[in-house]
Amino acid sequence: MTDKDISQPITYATSGVDVEAGDDAVELMKSAVTATHSNRVLGGFGGFAGMWDATPLTSYRRPVLTTSTDGVGTKVAIAQAMDIHDTIGQDLVGMVVDDIVVVGAKPLFMTDYIATGKVVPERIADIVRGIATGCKLADTALIGGETAEHPGLLAPDEYDVAGAVTGVVEGGKILGPERVREGDVVIAMESSGVHSNGYSLLRSIVAAQGWNWDDHIDEFGRTLGEELLEPTRIYAQTCLNLIDELNGDDNFALRGFSHITGGGLAANLARVLPRGTMATIDRSTWSLPAVFSVLAEAGKVPQPDLERTLNLGVGMVAVVAPEAAKAALQWLNSHDMKSWQIGTVGALTDDAAEAGHDFIQGAKGVDGGGVLLHGSYAQ
């Protein structure tokens, strides 16, 4: 092998990695991160490992640890196009903490990972501030993270984010399909918008229409980009408080939750129903928020595709005993969580599959119950 004559030394900086910029970003995000800490977080900020004092878990009879990891998908492309980066972090938190609360778990701490083509300290700090905001809303600590600069792999203005949360639930109080009974009531909790799923579909519609992110949309009352960057609603604390309101040591009036993410309402609800049961969901109990109806019409999106991609206004679902439904609805609506009954759970019928696209069973690899959607959305 013949060596080429190189006139200038090759350094990490000339290779595209700016260590000093990374240090600057850490300093800018420090106050936001430490604001999520309580006295259970040990070791301060910036250590090799995040540490959380697990002494509170000694009060559990059988503490079961839970975990979830996720990102926010191609929603980051809109944030990058609009140069608005302080909301993506809340989306990231919502995606993971609201997954573990489905089984009744309380989020304890979270870590994040940001990969970018070029570290711009202010941009990274904005992303992390959004994560910290979400952690505060979920009452969980942000105890560690990593920012990686990947020149040549990502463009200078490109980035992606991922995160993981750890939580705990009492072993004897885990919620899930085994607690669901025929006759149970399905309650919807309103989403704040699109949340963080289906953005590849939405971006395709926007591109086909030739719209710009800063176009004002009358139905939204703001720009297209502002509407689509609306942060994911975080349900964790509301769900945990509802558990405390309805369930006791031997009472499981609240059977479980379903976080409505990729796959839509039916596919995610089917995952938390036992085999042999079917939830019948009445579309006429709610109207599609404008963000969904406007974009669906613009893209001529078939209804089955729409329902299997987007949350359509329902971000979280609770399954409760029929005698507790009224109390659950009253409590949720009195605590700033618009909620309504959308259906009931019954026995799976032999002819359900004849409903075609309106019936879903066995979604996302889970051999659980089925969900039948019927009726038309309210106008």
TrEMBL record:
Keyword Acyltransferase among UniProt keywords: no
Record family assignment: Belongs to the AIR synthase family.
Entry-linked PANTHER family: TRIFUNCTIONAL PURINE BIOSYNTHETIC PROTEIN ADENOSINE-3, TRIFUNCTIONAL PURINE BIOSYNTHETIC PROTEIN ADENOSINE-3-RELATED
Superkingdom of this protein's organism: Bacteria
Protein name: Phosphoribosylformylglycinamidine cyclo-ligase
Bilayer-spanning residue ranges: none
Assigned keywords, A-Z: ATP-binding, Cytoplasm, Ligase, Nucleotide-binding, Purine biosynthesis
EC number: 6.3.3.1
Organism: Enteractinococcus fodinae
Residue span, PurM-like C-terminal domain: 181-347
Pfam family, one: AIRS
Gene: purM
